Amino acid sequence: MPVTHDIGQRVELVSMDAHCQNITIGLYQQSGRSYLVHTFSGKTGAAERIDFVKRAMATLGEMQTAPADSGHLRFPCGDSHLMAVRRLFLEAVKLPSSEECPVRPLFIFDRKSNEEVRVRSLGSGAYEVEAGPRAEAVAGGLAKLGHLNAAEGATTRVYFPCGQSHDALIGLLLYRALNVRAAVREMELAASRGMLVAPSAQR
Asked: N or C: which end of the chain has fewer CB within 10 A?
């Protein structure tokens, strides 16, 4: 008799992972606001690839392994941060398993303005974008990609609803916030690629 597993609700999907024999990898939300990175593929190296993606997400987003669910990931604040975790997952899968995954800094060079964009942590989950004429646009990009709130009366300031700082997530989102339209299109395309296929179809 076949055994089925409740892997949760699908959040995001990469239908063909170029770094591991084009296997399909999905991100699923579990109960208790934790996440599972999963593939049905039995191909050689698939399990190791899943382990790498989980480690990359833990580093790039400062997530931690849920104590009661070995291998499941969650944010220390206890919030789901659904939009941000989708972006985090997509960025992690882009990396080859041999690559280092250092936490990204709160600054980046913006080619459009030909200057450095810096984000300053204000504490309690709030951040100020310091980017000259593009500050508002970058702050808007961060808000959209991470589902952050805009501070009232401050168009260059955003904050996490959980009220806790997430420097690593901001560093990750900052790169994509410079071109938020392209990032949103990528997420929409990933969401339209269908369900995770059965194991028999991946062998």
From this structure: N
Give 66-112 pLDDT, tens digit per residue: 765 567 999 999 999 999 999 999 999 999 999 888 999 999 999 88
Q: Is residue 1 part of a domain?
A: no
CB contact set of 22 (below 8 Å; sequence gap of 6+):
16
Measure the CA–CA gap between 193 and 26, rounded to whole angstroms: 11
**What is the count of structural domains for the chain?**
2
Specify whether 91 is located in the same domain as 37.
Answer: yes
Which residues constitute the domain of residue 81?
A: 9-102
Token duo for residue 147: 């589902």
Query: In whole numbers, what is the pLDDT of the chain averaged over residues?
Result: 88
Distance CA 47, CA 52 (A): 9
What is the structure's pLDDT at 201? 46
Same domain, 125 and 171: yes
Residue 26 falls within a domain, yes or no? Answer: yes
